[in-house]
Design a protein that fits this description.
It contains four helices and no strands. It is mainly alpha-helical.
Length: 184
């Protein structure tokens, strides 16, 4: 919410001063270019913020599923250990465990190996989604800096501030693009 209010304030300031930057009648001055570039940065910033929220949500859901799978894997491991201990006790007593139980232990071990692979794959997916979230968050920050510098450039009537803001905006736009790449 604070980011939105700062962005809105920058836009209001830009729009108040946009008409003051014309050099000749009918020709847009650099104030107009500042206004348009900051508007574009605000659009990209909003997109980046939305994607940061989406990727954080997906990461949370994926992590929850990973935890559930891990708990299931541990439950299966404990069941196998208990059954294996029972078989060891039976063997110590000179009795053979039921063949159905031995087959069940073998099947559980195979299932556990498959589940371990799935948990490992899910860990890499969670890592990619978390990475995308961080990239989008950085993008929003860079674009916010660019927007702020654009507003400051108009207030201070300093073109170099706008140019620096454009550099931050370009870095933010690149970060948004990289975030989308990470999401795919």
């Amino acid at each position: 919410m604070e980011l939105e209010s700062r962005t809105e304030h920058a836009h209001e300031t830009i729009h108040e001063h946009v008409g003051e930057g014309h050099h000749r009648p009918g020709a847009p001055g650099w104030f107009t270019h500042v206004a348009l570039s900051t508007l574009l940065m605000a659009l990209l910033s909003a997109t980046g913020a939305l994607m940061a929220a989406i990727s954080a949500h997906e990461s949370l859901l994926e992590r929850s599923q990973e935890i559930l799978d891990f708990v299931s894997l541990e439950t299966d491991r404990v069941e196998i250990e208990v059954l294996q201990s029972r078989h060891d006790i039976l063997r110590q007593l000179g009795e053979a465990p039921a063949e159905s139980e031995v087959a069940r232990v073998r099947a559980w071990r195979e299932e556990m190996a498959r589940e371990k692979r799935e948990v490992s794959e899910e860990e890499s997916i969670v890592g990619a989604t978390t990475s995308a979230h961080l990239v989008f968050a950085v993008a929003v920050t860079l674009l916010s800096i660019g927007i702020t510098l654009g507003g400051m450039a108009i207030i201070a009537r300093q073109r170099f501030l706008w140019l620096i803001g454009l550099v931050f905006g370009a870095a933010g736009a690149l970060s948004v693009a990289l975030g989308f790449r990470d999401m795919l």
